[in-house]
Design brief:
CATH class of the largest domain: Alpha Beta
Oligomer: single chain
CATH topology of the largest domain: Alpha-Beta Plaits
Keywords: Coiled coil, Membrane, Transmembrane, Transmembrane helix
Order of helices and strands: HEHEEEEEEHHE
Radius of gyration: 54 Å
Strand order of the largest sheet: 3-2-7-1-8
Number of domains: 2
Protein name: DUF881 domain-containing protein
InterPro entries: DUF881
Largest sheet: 5 strands, antiparallel
Distance between the termini: 154 Å
Structural class: alpha+beta
Shape: rod-shaped
Pfam families: DUF881 (PF05949)
Mean pLDDT: 78
Number of helices: 4
Family: Belongs to the UPF0749 family.
CATH superfamily of the largest domain: Protein of unknown function DUF881
Length: about 240
Amino acid sequence: MRKRKQNRYIVFSFIFLVFGFIFSFSYSQSKKEENLQVNLTDRQYRIENNMRSQLLDIQDRNRKLQKELYEKQSKVRQFEKELSQEEEIYFNLAEDTEKYRMFLGKVKVKGPGVEVVLEDAEYIKSEDVNNYIVHEHHVFKVVNELYIAGASAVAINGQRISHDSYIVCQGPVITVDGNPHPAPFIISAIGDSDVLASAISITGGVRDQIVNDNIVFSLEKKKNIMMEPIFGEVS
């Protein structure tokens, strides 16, 4: 009887030992897995936090770069605007320079315009011949009116005149800058032919004044007039 009890104790001891070992092993494995999970979670958090910090830094750098880009684009647009204004100024200066060259007679010019012819009229021998010939003031009237009407270049009998040209009447001839020209006097002007013709022919204007002085007056529109530059020094 006692031997059976001993055997029973031995069996129970063995069972408890096995259960204890299993429980201890399970607990140990559970702690390892828990520690591993904690370690993995902590590492993942550090990685995510680091990536988040890097992303924020990149976004901040992008905002700064974008702001810098906008500022540079604004400067470029300002430079382009200033350059455009300078180009316009230079273009206007070049255009004005060309006009001045034409006005001074420095360059050869051609274009449409008008041709005005002034001729001495037939006179009665008993009257003063000076009342029937073309004088410098007649030529001056025509030249001035043509310039006022917008003529870019004017010539008398083919001789180009400039801003400081002088016209003097010497008997039956007129000298232009010292060069004598006999009648008839052909005054050519380059510009808008319709405007020039209207300015000269207006009622009570230059044409009527000259005709009233017994001068033969004629006007013709020209499609193309060519004028050579003034040779020699032109101030």
